[in-house]
Please model this.
Amino acid sequence: MMFFRVALLVLRKDFAIEIKSREILYTTLLFALSCVLVFSIAFVKQGEPLEDAAAGILWIAIEFAGTLALGRTFERERYGETLRALLLAPVPRAAIYVGKTLGILVLLFVAELLLVPLVAVLFHASLLARPVLLAALLAFGTVGFASVGALFAAMLVRARSRDVMLPILLYPITIPVMIAGVRGTVALLQTPPDTATVTLWISILAAFDVVFVTLSLWTFEPVMTE
Model:
């Protein structure tokens, strides 16, 4: 119970700060929407989008927006040595990691609520035809991305070149998640949707999540101690 209480307290702290400033939310949403709009100009010709472009653009926008949110979230912790205070508290370090990751997930899920309809409209994609399968793809894919991203962002919070190093470290690790998400979304957008293939990719994403979350929980404390 102490573990989950600490995680929820960290999430509550981040949520309260964001409600007052809305800095990360507005920045992330604006960046994600800008990505989709720019790609729509490039890949939609005479009202017809490129085949399978919608799936790739959706996941690229999520990844880029998530990277920005990760950097800004942990950048905030440097002010007033907040991260050091959290690490010095007599609580499980892994609970701090879970709380920060939950905050990132909430932010990305809000961004996805706007991105999915926008991509569906601009790229003439039937993303909302199978909402349950799409929600499962996005949920498992976002968890895999955020779990690794939160670990790397915390690890680089004191590095001078953290804004450059974060995507360099994060993208190679999360490529399997992005590939699974894109291929599952492509199968979902087929006419008719290839439900069996979508389910297979969801299972693969779930397996990635188990591995990434387990390794992140295991390595967060020694990484932050160093």
